[in-house]
Design brief:
Layout (H helix, E strand, L loop, with lengths): L48 H37 L8 H7 L8 E6 L8 H20 L5 E5 L3 H7 L11 E2 L13 E4 L14 E6 L10 H9 L2 E3 L3 H4 E2 L8 H13 L3 H8 L7 E2 L1 H7 L2 H6 L6
Parallel strand pairs: 1-2, 1-5, 2-3, 4-5, 4-6
Antiparallel strand pairs: 7-8
Helix pairs in contact: 3-7, 7-8
């Protein structure tokens, strides 16, 4: 990102040239990161009200990001001090996690986040995808038995969006610029899609489950399922219908799908994993009739199914 110092000159004959008279709100801006389109091309200085608003928002973020992160670190330290005073266990620290990261035995089951949908999303939605990947990474590294974690189709836009998070290159994630079919054997891939007619029963060893890295607000319904069918890849959904009733559609966010897979692979029962992960707004509750009438508790443990 190109930055430059902004300076403004007033004409000598300008009667409003007093130093304390701010004619423009831009006088207070220190850095100018520029305004770029989705392809990274520098745009001319904005003149419309909407362009100016976006530009100022970008400039403010650049100027305040370090102070904001310092405040976040200070708040985190304060929370840890309060937790220690109250004898509350917050789990391992970031430093200890980094030391443990190479010592943890990983499952032979993998998750792939497919980032081939950048051109279908606006910048705001692409940032949401990156934020959800950040949550997935955080959950995975805190797991006793973390999953193999891969990101495919990691192109220029994704790299630019991810660069907002310093040190992402050191995360315990395998980044691939190529699409998943060029990295993994097709017979080891399973695409998780809520439109699939197949319900997964268990997560297989030496298999990689794909989650579509797409925030589309239901504009591209069934896209991931159609891609899997066209590419001849196995596809399935998580067993939401078997274990819970939901008030809303059963399409989940990237991090929710990831966490359900992670918890089940850790040994948590399906119904517990689903209820613990789904937010309250989904209105999920147990399907008591199907669990009590059609399946014994022994059958449930041996015949758990998956729905994404």
């Amino acid at each position: 990102m190109i930055t430059m110092e902004l300076s403004y000159k007033t004409k000598p004959e300008d009667p409003y040239s007093e130093t304390n008279f701010h004619r423009y709100t831009l006088f207070d801006i220190i850095k100018d990161p520029g305004l770029k389109d989705d392809d990274g091309n520098e745009l001319p200085r904005p003149f419309t009200k909407n362009q100016m608003r976006k530009w100022l928002k970008k400039v403010r973020w650049e100027n305040n990001k370090y102070a904001k992160r310092a405040k976040e670190k200070a708040r985190a330290k304060e929370r840890r001090r309060n937790a220690r005073a109250a004898n509350i266990d917050l789990g391992p620290s970031r430093k200890s996690l980094k030391k443990m990261i190479l010592e943890k035995p990983k499952k032979n089951t993998g998750i792939i986040i497919d980032l081939s949908f950048d051109n279908l999303m606006i910048e705001k939605d692409r940032y949401k995808v990156i934020k959800q990947i950040l949550r997935c990474y955080s959950m995975n590294r805190r797991s006793i038995t973390p999953l193999q974690f891969h990101v495919t189709s990691f192109g220029d836009k994704s790299k630019s969006d991810m660069s907002r998070h310093n040190g992402y290159e050191n995360w315990d994630i395998e980044y691939h610029e190529e699409p998943y079919l060029e990295v993994f054997p097709k017979h080891k891939l399973v695409y998780l899609s809520s439109e699939s007619n197949n319900t997964i029963e268990h997560f297989e060893e030496d298999t990689y489950y794909i989650i579509g890295g797409l925030v589309d607000h239901n504009q591209h319904k069934g896209l991931c399922h159609n891609i899997a069918v066209e590419q001849g890849i196995r596809h399935c959904q998580l067993p939401l219908n078997k274990y819970v009733n939901m008030k809303t559609r059963k399409v989940l966010t990237i991090d929710h799908v990831f966490e359900i897979v992670l918890r089940v692979c850790e040994g948590m029962p399906w119904q517990d994993a689903i209820l613990n992960v789904l937010p309250s707004r989904k209105g999920a509750h147990l399907v008591c009739d199907s669990l009590s009438n059609s399946t014994s508790s022994e059958d449930i443990s041996q015949h758990s199914t998956n729905d994404s």
